[in-house]
Amino acid sequence: MIGNPLATPAQKAIEDRALRLLARPDLQRVRGVVTMLWQQVAGWPNRDQADRFANMIDEYMFHHAFRAANGDANHPEVARFMAPRHHWFGRDVRGSRWAGDSPDFIYRTVPIAHGGHYLIEGRATCADHPTVNWSLMADNTASPVTQALLDSLDMDIAPDGSFTLTIDDTPADGRRNHIQTKPGADFLMIRDALGDWQAQSPNALTVTRLNPTADPKSDDELAARAARIALDHVYYTYYCTQSGAGQAPNHIRPPMSSAAFGGMPTQAGTKGNLDLAPDRALIVRGNAAGARFRNLTLTDCYHMTIDYWARTSTLNMAQMLPDDDGDFTTVIAHRDPGVHNWLDTGGLRRCIFGQRWQGFRRDAENPEPWITVREVAFDDLPRELPDGVARIDAAGRQAQLSARAAGFARRFAEA
After folding, report:
1. How far does Cα 248 stand from its chain's mean position?
2. Which of 30, 161, 360, 377 is deepest in the core (most CB within 10 A)?
3. Does any domain span residue 82?
């Protein structure tokens, strides 16, 4: 990676604008309402994780302030959000995680309006290009609606990794790098899926609106939008949380398309509600299913990821090792089981489990994704695990954690 494609002047300006919006009295009042709504439905059920509530509200509010701060479709920018709190550009930046973030995705947003003509220019910043999903989302308050979806595996990309993408209200007519808007278009969600956190980095992107029709929006207009979406999305966010936490404990439902939940229609995913006593463990087995990208994630009861920069609370296909038979065994436990593929709960008895498969091969018949789960006593793991499971010693675990920390730090490098 030459420089950091995320450390742009536009990124800093939008973060500063979002922080400014949050300090306004009108958004402080909205924060109070959001806090009350969450407390009424989650305060008692989630009392065992009450110490995580304030940070969830902080990140929820910054997420929506950020989306509003980069919500002017006449003057769009490309900006990264859905990240934990961090320090860069000489100041602390709040986290903006929301509704079950993926630690392996670099999430970016671009405001889009139907009738606008947009040009996005991109270039690769690493030798092994990550797969990228471009989702055009509608302004629907009940649940996100994907109007159009483009996968980088289906795009024309030059040998040097450069490309252009057009977005407007005209049909593609054979253009592989084009997204057609529809009435209600609101923003483009970009997800660069990083497997190797140290070798891969997101594309460098710029956006231009070719037919702007208005001056930049005022802070009053942006704050009104932030207030509206922050209040409206309480209900959808709660649904996302309960779609995992509302299931029977320690069972994982079969994989299915994410479209019905406001996710990517081409992605297969599953969730589970975990409730593990200190002396218990879960053995999870699954297949690759021809997916170029896969990951397994644990989140807390508010669907917030669990310190994934410092512990193996998430694993992707580059961080996991297969069993001897080519499938994958993962152990979910509070203590290190000596297995390479360990999902660390961070000491939380209750977690939401998620797994996704995406970027399926285009040149072959792909097997259906599958997953199984079995609860066992932690002390019985040596005899309960299938043959051929990859093991790890203390030195190997430390190297694994050090690599995670270094890879995460690259995302916030300023040079």
Report:
1. 24
2. 30
3. yes
pLDDT tens sequence for the chain (415 residues): 568 999 999 999 999 999 999 999 999 999 999 999 999 999 999 999 999 999 999 999 999 999 999 999 999 999 999 999 999 999 999 999 999 999 999 999 999 999 999 999 999 999 999 999 999 999 876 788 899 999 999 999 999 999 999 999 999 999 999 999 999 999 999 999 999 999 999 999 999 999 999 999 999 999 999 999 999 999 999 999 999 999 999 999 999 876 666 566 678 999 999 999 999 999 999 999 999 999 999 999 999 999 999 999 999 999 999 999 999 999 999 999 999 999 999 999 999 999 999 999 888 889 999 999 999 999 999 999 999 999 999 999 999 999 999 999 999 999 7
Chain centre to alpha carbon of residue 256: 18
pTM of model > 0.85: yes
CA distance 272 to 315: 16
Q: How far apart are CA 191 and CA 108, in angstroms?
A: 7
- Dist CA 215 CA 202 (whole Å): 31
328-333/342-344 β-pairing: parallel
Give the Cα separation of 340 and 312 in Å (integer): 10
Q: Cα(54)–Cα(35) distance, rounded to whole angstroms?
A: 9
Same domain, 162 and 236: yes
Close Cβ partners of 158 (under 8 Å, ≥ 6 residues apart):
none
Which domain range does residue 357 map to?
Answer: 248-410
